[in-house]
Every structure is written in structure tokens, then in C-alpha cells.
Amino acid sequence: MSKVTEILATMDYGPAPEANGEVVKWLKARGSFGHLIGGAFTTPAKTFAVQNPATGEVLAHVSQGSASDVEAAVKAAHAALPGWSRLSGHDRARWLYALARAVQKRERFLAVLETMDNGKPIRETRDIDVPLVARHFYHHAGWAEMLEDEFPGMGPVGVCGQIIPWNFPLLMLAWKIAPALAAGNTVVLKPAEYTPLTALAFAEICVEIGLPKGVVNIITGDGETGAALVAAEVDKIAFTGSTEVGRAIRRATAGTDKKLTLELGGKSPFVVFSDADIDGAVEGVVDAIWFNQGQVCCAGSRILVQEVIAEDFTRRLKARLAKLRVGDPLDKSTDMGALVDPVQLNRVSSLVREGEAQGATLHQAPCVLPSKGSFFAPGFFTNVAPANVISEVEIFGPVATLTTFRTPDEAVELANNTRYGLAASVWSENINLALDVAAQVKAGVVWINGTNIFDAAAGFGGYRESGFGREGGREGMLSYLADAPVKAKAEAAPITPDTAPHPEASGRADGIDRTAKLYIGGAQKRPDSGYSYAVMAKGRTIGLAGLGNRKDIRNAVEAAHGAKGWGKATGHNRAQVLYYLAENLSQRAAEFTERLKSAGTPKAAEEVETAIRRAFWYAAQADKFDGAVHSTKSAHVTLAMNEPYGVMGVACPTDAPLLGFLSLVLPAIAMGNRVIALPSQNMPLAATDLYQVLETSDLPGGVVNIVTGARDELAKTLAGHDDVAALWYCGSPDGARMIEAESAGNLKVTWTPENRDWLSPAGQGKAFLTRATQVKNIWVPYGE
Amino acid sequence: MSLSAKETPANFPRNPGVPLQTDWFDAIAVNTSAAERRAATLTTRRTVKKDFQAAWLVNAIRCIDLTTLSGDDTPDRVARLCAKARRPLSDEIMRGLGLDHLTTGAVCVYPSMVPAAVKALKGTSIPVASVATGFPAGLTPLPLRLAEIRYAVEEGAEEIDIVIHRAQVLNGDWQALYDEVAAMREACGAAHMKAILATGELRTLRNVYKASMVAMQAGSDFIKTSTGKEGVNATLPVSLIMVRALRDYGRLTRHKIGFKPAGGMKSAKDAIAWQILMKEELGNDWLQPDLFRLGASSMLADIERQLEHHLTGRYAAAHRNAIA
User: What are phi and psi of A777, to 5 degrees?
Assistant: First the structure.
């Protein structure tokens, strides 16, 4: 029988290897690599081997970046910064365009190199990774071109240290470098130690096109090199990787004024309703957790299926699983290649074993794995209790969990039952249901009837412990731009709360005792401590304020969570409340002016008047600071929605007791957040006087909670509270460092604006609103 | 090795049909975007190269219903087509591939051309397929449509490609559709029946799924995408939904239904793409001519050129190979 007739009997696919001769030649010619620093490659000194995870063969040796290498690279980036940032947007656009073109001109080389270095199938590098890299540079050439028009007053952050993971090595490089360069920053990028080769190929491209020296610096190395970069004199750290390392970076950068964006782990829900296209959803699982060997931070790793279709869905999923081809990543008919490294293989294997030991049932593809290389048969678990380790922990391998739910409410509850919040996938043919779930799920990216759809024009990034900051689109540019500089003004030092009895403070001229309590859940509450402290002005005690403590914060956070309706209210409703607040404040303007005068506040009348205007301004914004429809793929509506964080802490400066407080609280609540506000420690009475204004303005209880007392101590409790999503702190540098470090626990978003002249225009603006919201991108593919 | 339709190992029982059961498809959800994504990645996830490609192209030939359905068809034209069906590849290519016998799956013609085709294929095992039932629009009165089937069968057609009444799908008149198709199945007698859904006129993938299901419930042996005369003929997304429907029907009834994409497929690349679809969504049984046919005319010439290139390494010229 001929070969052809033999094949006719089996109808197998046969081997279809992608040629890798050019890449092998290149690797052989280079042998070992130095770093790219200041436009030139360093001589390799101490190196380590980089392996092909599919074969175990050594591909190259790359340099282990030392602290001095990092220092040299950061220095080169600083040197390049003035020239690069002064270029016109158009000139930078030309460079980004050149990078895009250069990537396209060697797309196959880069795809093959990536596959060899990472182990992912050539189909993915060829059809997904590399085209998206080019797309990213093109898209950001456009942002460079339009920068001044689109982001007036903003400027580059400076030198950006960027640390990227091994799952999408070149794509993550593009996500980091393209927006940074477009905004006028210079960068020092460290690729992952497992997968540095495409970054080095990109470094060669930078040299080849003559990119100004020092604009892009690339340092290879391991976690120590990364730590050195975090510690270096950079203005920003952008990190993509594990939540654990992200948390360490949050602590390490606390109080350093380094801008920080983190794109971390996930355990993203993949929700299938009974009215979904079940075969379509099954195929979605393939694109979710069986994509890139499941090494995808946004992978739909928790499959939630409505009970009524669970059996059918599971049967179809098993049948589909059996069709997956696992093997040589360079083979064009391979669905799944090798995990990135034996270390990952061990980690995934042991987690899967643990999941089984805890009672879950594993269904694995009946495939024959290659005898060598880091291969793992894809699969999924059924009978998974929420308490099983594999329900909580990110496996970062090709194994999903499958759990059932009964109702949409339960689906949302299960979907949100995680520390993470990166992505979600919702499958239903009912647009009402799908959008309702999309709105309720806590995730930065929601795909309806799809999964793992990416485009440079849409923002990508997480809620909760999946990090903060966005990459891609307009919102991604904001991560690489600094606000117009504000003239900082040191606040008055906080007084030490004096809780000794102050008989002279309890009375008033009219003889009726007046005590400022705390304001929690719309009611005045006595402080848990049972103490009040003296509020002093011009050397005398003018009143007493409650001395709040941890428990008051706890109660205030609970009250804020109870006021859920505020986030769902229309912008118009919120605007009405804010206008009404302005009206009521205006009615009592004289009283507040007197209060401020008695507290020794200069320009008291102006402060009250500005507060009223500010309430109007944020009322106006409440229904106008809206999102966008991004221009991504054809037949996709990509909605970028500005969502409130939910429950926020706001620690106010000691200065401007009324205006400082309202300047921070108003934008937060205008966007639908509920806040726990810590008013001026020195003069809390201007804020406590607001209780009646808040009540008469129809502000629902729990939307604004006010806890007076020692600000930094209370802020520390807020920073360490895992159910507070964001925290603004306007106070001392020490306090800022403290809250940034303490916030690492749940990776809450922090903002530490400088104290400023709150009467000036710097006291309000869209920057406040941007900080009060997070962008959720909802992808809705359409077509009949 | 001999490769023709009737000599293939599998020989599945015919589909007797089942009573109309609308609950098998009433609530079907088909997401068009998801179907398009799957269709688009089928051929980027799988490929065949070298000898494997050659074998898959040979396999496509034996699944081709070599077709002529033109107003100017004549007995001689049909005879020429049949000659190509008997000997789809040149002797040189056959030798080069190590094949001693190969035919197409069938020859497909209009009813009035059936006698000519039967005559031209005498002595071979190649079945004659005839379109019927007022092809392509299917809007002649039912008795005439049924009479047309009987005529074609009497003249020797062993396979009948019927067209459904599209309005019955567009209006959701499932009972009427079922009754008509069942009557056609009865008229076919021993001849295998392929139901052409004319998916280009059904427009939505949900309609395609529902029409597929009713056609199978009424006893179709094959479901077929198109007449070749609609504005849009065989596409991968439509084919995907049809094969999913026949897979679902198979699970519910244990009957294996065949699939025939038709119209618009012209290249060797198309031949590979549809075979990948069959293998991935169904399995190897659906790469055999008794469960898979490609309704095409010009595709064979492109396959022959590709096979010649495979053997010689030189790009081939169509005029050097015999036309159909």
C-alpha cells in the first residue's frame, strides 16, 4: 500500500511542523545575550540558560541583571527622558509606527521564537499574540499623535519600570511599552526569566530602527532583578504577574511617590445560563481555560452552569475535550503545547492532585502526552465544593472547575465569591439577563457570549485583588500620564486628641449642650470609645468631637455596604441630591461661615461659597462623567463603563475643614460610591455640622459616614479593611506611606493627593472623578 | 486500493425518521458570533501537509457529488461529466499516488438528465443523484414535486436531492414541512434522500438548525446546505450548525445522518476545510461518502491540480488535465 492509501484508512492529520530554521540560526549566532541599556547591548557576564519547555533543550543564555545593571538602565532612561518627552506627539507616533511595522515585517520569526521559548502553540503566537502586538503599537502611535488634544494638561510620568510575566511575553511587552512611549515616558523593562527571548528580539528591533538611545532599556533576570527595578529611581512601576508579588511590590513602593499599576491573578467566572448556545459556550471553554495551556490571568477557570443544563453541558464539554490535540507547539495542528517550565508543571500537578484529594472529580483529555517536556493533559473538575482549594486558588493551568447554580442571583453570588475580579464571561441569548449579570459581576472585563477577546482600543485590568490600572484604550493611557502638577501646600500638623474632661467646651452661649457625635448609617452615633476630644481654636476649646476607633470604622463600613442603592441610582438621582445639598448648604451659609470663622479659618465665606459651587459642579458631573464605546473589532460593541468602587475611605486634610472635606467626598459620592470620611482632625465640627444638611438633602443613610478622631489611626484601620475597595488619603507623607503599605492586604486602590489650596481650581476636576471610578469593559459581540 | 461510494466499509442503516417533535428544537439557541468564531478557527487549528494533504484530497474526490445543474445541460454534456466521475484523476496521478481505482461519490443532475447519466455510468458503481421537487425554488405543487421524484427514481436515480419549501421554515410551519418531506421520503422509495435546506434563504442559524431537525425527523438520509442557486450557498458557520443538529439528532435517535455542503466551494482548500469540520465536530465516520458528500463541480479540477503539484513539485495548469 502506498503512503496515501494508508492515510486514507486512518484519515489522521499527520505532522505539520512550522519551520524554525531562521530562529535556530539566530539563536546560534547570538549564543548569549546582554541587556539593552542606553541603545546598546551589554557584554554578557553572569548568565543563565533559557529552555524550550516542550523539549527541555537550551535555547540561549541570557544575562542575570544585577542591581548595577538596573541602575545603569534607569540612568539611561532618565538621560533619554527629556529628549523623548519633548518630542512632539507626531514624532513619537512615527517611532511607534516604525515599531509596529518592524514587528509585522518579522511576524513569523517572532511567532516561532515565542513558541519555542514559551511552549504555546504556533497557532496562538501566529494568529493571536503577534498580530495583537502589532495592533498595540499601531493603536498607540495614534495616542501619541493625539496626546495633546486628548489629554490636555497631562504629561508623562517619567521613567517607568515594567515587569512582565511569561504567559504572553511579547504581548505583555507591547502592552507595557506602547502606551508608555506614546505618553512620552522612557522605560526599563524586565521580561520574565523563563521567557526573555522575544523581548531581546524586540530590543534588536529598537536598535535596528534607531530608536533614540535609552528610551527602551531591557534587562533580563529573575525576581531579584525585578526587586532591584522596583527599588530603583523610577517614577512608576507597572507589573503584571502574581497577586503575591504584586502585594510585595505594593508594600515596597509604599510612600515612594512611584505611580503603580498592577495586573494580577484571577479566578474568573464563566457563567452559562440555560438559554445559552450550549455548543457555543463549550467552544468558549476551549478559548478560555484551554487557551495558552490555561496560563491566562483572565482565563474563565470557574465554569458556572445552570443546573438544568449541567448534564448536557458536561457531556458536550467532555466530548470536546477529547478532541484537543496536545503536543509539539510548533505543529500547526496543536491545540495545546507545553506549560512554561517544569516548575509550573509540578505546581499545576500538585494543585490538581490536592483538588482530587479534597473530593473533586477530574475529567482529563484522553490524550497521549509527549514523553518529554512540560506537558499536562487539559481537563476540568466536577463535584467541586466552594471550599475546595481549587475553587479558590488560581491553578494557572489547563484545568477548570465546574459548579452549578440555580438562579441568576445565585450565579452572580458565586461569580463574585472570589478575592479576584479580573474578567468574567457570561453566556445567554437573553440580552437583558446577560447585561444584568455583566453589570453586577465584579470584574474589569466582561465578555458576553465570548471569552478572551482582546483589542488595543479596549481597557484591560482588574477589580479587587486582580490589581488596578488599565492597559489599552483611553483608560490605559491614563496609567502612563501624570495629572497637571498641583501646587502642594503642607497641611497644619494634626493635633493630638485630648480626651481629658473639658467642662468649658460642652456648653454654648444659648445654654443648650451640643455634642458632635459620629455619623454612621444616616444616624448620629456615640463613639464606641465613650470618649470625646477637645476641638481647639485660637487657643480655646470650641467644642467636643467623638473619638472614633476601630469599631466605629467597622460599623461605618458595614453601614456603607448597606447603602447599595446609591451605586445603582441614576446619575440624575444623585445629581438631584447633590443640588439639594448645595441648596441647603446655601440656606445655612451664614452659620457655616460663622463656624469656620470661629475655627480661625481664613476666607471663611469664600470657603462656604466654593463648597456650594463644588456641589453644583459634581452634581453636574453625576450624569455626565460617563464611559465610552470603544472602537475595537467589527460586530462588537465594547462598552467602557465608569463604575464606582463601592465602599471608599476618604481621609481629609486638617486644612479647609469644610471645603477640604467636601472636595473629596463630593466626587466620590457623585460617582455612586459610599464613603467613610475622616474629617479634619483639628476642626471636625465643620463636617459634623453637615449632618443635618446631609439629612435634609435626602442623602440616603450610609452613603456618607463620618468618623471623627485621630485620622491616621482611623485611616490605618480603613487601609487594612478588606471590605473597603479604595482609599483616598490627603495628609502627611508618613501617613501616605502607611496607608499604601497597609492597603496591600486586599490591594485596594489608593490615592494620596497633596494638600492644596482647596479654594483654587486645583480643588476640583475630572482627575477626582477618574480616581473615584474604575472602568469595566463589557464586550458584546452581535450578529444574527 | 479501490475507492468508490459503494465499496466503503461503513454501511449505515437508513434513517426511518421519527414523529415530528418540535421540543427537540423549539428552544434552540444559536449564537451567530460564537458559530462564526468556531468556523473561523477550525481551519487555523488544523492543517494537513504533504502525503496527508494528498490523501485528504483523494478522500474529498470520493465524496464529491460531481454536479451539473444548468439550463443548457444536454445528454452529451452529462456523459462528459460522467466520464470524469469514472476517472477523476489522470492515470499518471493515480499511479503516482499508488491508487488503482477512484471515482467520485456520485453524479448529480436534473431529472431529465438521469437517463443519460445512468447510461454513461453503466458498469460502474457510481450512483446517479437527481435533484427533484421543483429544484431550485421548490414551489411547484406538491403532487408535481412528488411525481418528479418518482420519475427520477424510475429512470434509475439512486439518490434524490429534494428542496424544502422555505416559507414553511420562515413561518415556523413545522407540521407542513414535516408532512411534505415525509411524503418525499416515501416517494423516494429505495433511493436515498438528501434534503436541501437552501440555508441562504433561511437567513438565521436558528432557522437552519430547526429546518435540519425537521428534515431529519421526516426521514432525510442526508441534509444538504444549498441548491447552489441561492445568493449565499455553503458556508462553514451554516455547515457547523447543520452538523451539530445532525449530531444532536443522532444522539436522540441513534441514526447517523449524512451531510452535504453544496455550492460555492471551488478549491482544494475548501475540500480540506469541510473535512476538518466533519472530523472535528463529528468524527471519521463522516469522512466516508455514505455520510459526507461535497456538492461541487469546479472543485475537482483544483484538487487534481494540487495533487499533480504534490507529485511533481511543479505548479499545474488546468488545461493539461481533463475537464469534466
Answer: -100, 120
The predicted pLDDT at position A539 comes to 85
- Residue A530, phi then psi, degrees to nearest 5: 75, 15
**Topology adopted by domain A503-630+643-774:** Aldehyde Dehydrogenase; Chain A, domain 1 (3.40.605)
Q: Is the pTM of this model over 0.90?
A: yes
Residue B122 is part of which domain span? 33-320
Question: Between vectors from CA A458 to CA A668 and to CA A635, what angle results, nearest 5°?
Answer: 125
CB atoms within 10 A of CB A430: 14
The answer to whether the Cβ–Cβ distance between B35 and A280 falls below 8 Å is yes
**Integer Cα distance of A88 and A321 in angstroms:** 52
Which one is catalytic: A18, A114, A145, A263?
A263
Partner-chain contact B98 A283, CB within 8 Å: no
Q: Report the pLDDT value the prediction gives residue B7, as an integer from 0 to 100.
A: 45
> Which of B26, B45, B102 is the best residue to mutate to test the A interface, defined by the most A CB atoms within 10 Å of its own CB?
B45
The number of residues making up chain B comes to: 324
Residue B86 CA, chain-centre distance (Å), reads: 18
CATH topology of domain A268-461: Aldehyde Dehydrogenase; Chain A, domain 2 (3.40.309)
CATH architecture type of domain A21-262 = 3-Layer(aba) Sandwich (3.40)
The shortest C-alpha distance from A412 to chain B (Å) reads 22
State the ipTM, two decimals. Answer: 0.95
In chain A, which residues have their Cβ closer than 8 Å to the Cβ of B55? 3-5, 7-8, 11
Number of domains in chain B: 1
Task: Encode pLDDT of A699-733 as tens digits.
Answer: 999 999 999 999 999 999 999 999 999 999 999 99
Handedness of CA A639, A642, A645, A647 (dihedral sign): negative
**Is A335 in contact with B98 (Cβ distance < 8 A)?**
no
Contact yes or no for B52 and A7 at CB 8 A: yes
Active site residues of B: 161, 224, 260
